Amino acid sequence: MRYVDEYRDPTLVQSEVHHLKEIVRRSVTVMEICGGQTNSIMKYGLQDLIPKEIELVHGPGCPVCVTPLELIDRAVHLALLPEVIFCSFGDMLRVPGSQSDLFNAKAQGGDVRTVYSPLEAAQLAEAHPEKEVIFFAIGFETTAPANAMALFYALRKGLKNFSLLVSHFLVPPAMEAILSSPKNRIEGFLAAGHVCTVMGYEEYLPIAERYKVPIVVTGFEPVDLLQGLIMLVKQLNEGRYEVENQYVRSVRREGNHSAMEIMDKLFERSDRIWRGIGSLPMSGLRLKREYQQFDAEEKFSLSHIQANEDPDCISGLIMQGEKKPFDCTHFGKRCNPENPIGAPMVSTEGVCSAYFRYSRKSGGATESAGQ
Amino acid sequence: MNSCPLPHRNFERVLMGHGSGGRLTQRLLDEVVLPLFDREQVNDHHDGATLELPGGPLAFSTDSFVVTPIFFAGGDIGKLAVYGTVNDLAMCGAKPRYLSCSLIIEEGFLISDLRRVISSMAEAAKECGVRIATGDTKVVEKGKGDGIFINTSGVGEILRSSKPQNIRPGDQVILSGDVGRHGLAVIASRQNFESDLKSDCQDLSKVVLEIIKSGFEFHCLRDLTRGGLATNLRELAVSSSCGIVLHEQTIPVCDSVRGACEILGIDPLYSACEGRMVLIAPKASSSLLLEFLSGHPCASDPRIIGEVVQDGRDPLVLRSEWGSERILESLMYEQLPRIC
Which residues 277-316 on chain B approach chain A with CB closer than 8 angstroms? Predict the structure, then answer.
C-alpha cells in the first residue's frame, strides 16, 4: 500500500536505527508531541530499537487526554437530555468524567452516536428537526477545520438545532508551557505532522529561537519517526536549533490556507484548561461571539457543571515529561483500560494506554480465558 | 435480596463493550454469569462443550446473531447463524449433526426479508450437511427488537479432541487465510462506504472433517470470530498456560482491509472473521497441514504465523520484522474509530 509500506519497510527501519546509533553522542531527552506518534513508537517497538542515550518523553498531543473532566461531565449531561442526539468520535465515548462516561449515558437511554465525520452530525440535525443535535468538537488544529466545515453546512442549511460542544486545543502554547517550566528536561521536539499539515510550521520558528530548542516536524510511521530523531540528533550535535520538516510529503511551511481560513472565520483563540495540566493562556479555540448560538455550552447553560480531577492521577506530569506511566503506582492496577482513572489510559493515542497495551512490564488486570 | 455482583460503578449497566467478545465480555461472565451457574459444569474455554454420553462424546454449542445490517456484502444473518454454530462445533473436532433455530422478530419486519433470511439458512444448512431439527419463533413489539435476532444451537459427534489444554510448547500456529474481512465488510455496509470488501463467512466444517479423515495431527482449532485473531489466540494461550509468539510479516491482511483499517484507526488483528481458523499443531504435521490447506477452497493464502512457547514474556506477543516485540492484549472494548 503506497504511502504506508515504504515507511514501514524493515530494511529501511534497520538502516535508520543503525544511522541513529552512529550519530548519537550523548544522552538526550526528546518529546514527541502527538499521541499518534506515541502510539506508533509503542506499537512498532521503536523505544527498544533506538539507542539507549535517547529518552523519549511523551507529550500532551492526545485530544482525548487533555479534554478537561468537566467537559466530559457536560457531554454526559447533554447526552442524557431527552431532546438531544449527542454525536462524538468513538474515542471520546469511554473517557471517564467525574461520575460517568458517554457509554454509560448511552446505556442509560441517552441517544449517543459515533460518527466518522463532523458533517454526519450536521446531516443528522437536518434529518431530525425535532431533535437538538450536538457534536463533541474536540481535538487540536488537525480536527478544527472539519468541525468548522460542519458548522458551515449548518449555517448554509439554516439549521437551528445544531451546536458544538467545543474543546479545541493548540499545540504551540503547550510547548511553550513545557519549555518555560523550571523542571523542563526537553532538549528537542518531534512536532506533530498532522497539526502542521493544517497550520504549517512558521509559528514554531520563534519557539525554536526563544528557547534554543530544535524542532522537527515528523510523521507517524516508523521510518518517519526514526528520520525525525536523526534530524533532531544532528541538530543537537551541531548546536543548531532550527525548525526542520521531515514530513515533506504532507507538510508545507505555510500550511493549508483554505483550512486555516475556515477555522479563522468561525473560531478565535481563547484560554483553555488542559486536563491534568491546568489553564494555559490562549491555548485553545472557541466559537466567535457571532456564532454563539451554535455553542452548546451557551445554548444549554452548562457553566454550573464543574468537576475536580482524581488526585491520584499523575497524567499531567506524564504529559509534561516529568514522569513516565510506569512511575504511577496505579498503572495497570487501579488504573487500567477497563477502569481508567485518567484519560491517557483510555484513548488509543493515550500514553498510559499505549504502555499498557504494548509494553506492560508489571501489574496488569487479572485475566482468564473463555468465550 | 442479592447484592449487585458488579463491583465497579462503571458497570452498573450492561454496555455495548460487554458484547465485544473481549476482556469486558469475559469480566461479565466471570463476575456476573458464571458465579451464579455451577462453574464446573460450564465449559468456557472453547467454542463449545464436550458432553460425555454412553454412545460417545458429543459437542454442544450455541450462538446468537444480532448483526446490523442483516444483509451485508458476502452474506446475511441467516447464513451467519448456520455457519457460526456449525464452525463452533467443527472447532471442537466434531461433525455437526443437528441445529436448533430460534427467531426473535420485531413487529413490522418484512415477510419478504424473512423469506430471504430463512432461505439462506436452509441453503447453508444443506451445504454444511446439518439438519435444522427444532426451532422457536417469537415476535416482539415494534421498537423492542432490531428487525430480527437469531439463535442457533447445535450438536455434533466428536471425532477428534480439539481443546486448548492439548496445546504444547513447540506447536506451530497455522492460519487458514487473510484476516479481518467480516468486521470491515459489516462496517462498510453499515456506513455505506464504497468498497469491494466482502465478508469471509463460510462453512469450515468440511475442511475440518477432511483434515480429521486424512489423519493430520492437530491439538486445537479455533475460528476467529469476535475479537479477531489477537483476542482468540490470546484466549487459547491463557487457557493452555503457554505463550504464543506471532511473526507480524506472516499474517496476511488484504489491501482493502488494510486500507480501511488505516483510515478508521482499526487494528485488523482485532477485526472479526467468520470463515477463518487457526490450527495449533505439532511441528511435524504443520507443513503437511499447510500443504493440504493451500489447495483447499476454504483457505486463502494459509500461513504458519507463529509458535507456542513454554514461558513467554506475555501470553501473546507479536514480533516485528525488524526485531521489536509488542504485546497483543485481548480486545478491550469495541474497536472505536479514532479522532485523528
Answer: 314-315
Q: Which of A126, A164, A118, A68 is nearest to B337 (CA)?
A: A118
Give the whole-angstrom CA distance, residue A364 versus residue B327. 12
Sequential DSSP letters for A37-75: HHHHHHHTTHHHHS-TTEEEEEEEE-HHHHS-HHHHHHH
Q: Measure the CA–CA gap between B166 and A340, rounded to whole angstroms.
A: 36
* Predicted-assembly ipTM surpassing the 0.95 threshold: no
Domain span holding position A44: 5-56+175-234
- At residue A95, the pLDDT reads 85
Whether the CB-CB separation of B257 and B199 falls below 8 Å is answered with no
Instruction: Specify the CATH number for the domain of residue A194.
Output: 3.40.50.11750
Q: What angle do CA A26, A46, A169 make, to 5 degrees?
A: 90
| A13–chain B Cβ distance below 8 A for any pair | yes
B20-55 tens-digit pLDDT: 888 888 888 888 888 888 776 676 567 889 999 998
Q: Which three cell numbers stand for residue A101?
A: 462516561
CA distance B263 to chain A (A): 10
Does residue B246 contact residue B54 with C-beta atoms inside 8 Å? no
Q: Give the residue carrying C-alpha cell 468513538.
A: A90
State the total domains in chain A. 3
What domains can you pick out in chain B, each with its CATH number? 8-38 (no CATH), 47-158 (3.30.1330.10), 164-327 (3.90.650.10)
With respect to residue A245, please indicate whether it lies within any of the assigned structural domains.
no
B55 reaches A (C-beta below 8 A): no
Q: What count of CB pairs under 8 Å joins A to B?
A: 135
Cis peptide leading into B69, omega within 30 of 0? yes
H/E segment holding residue A265: helix A257-266
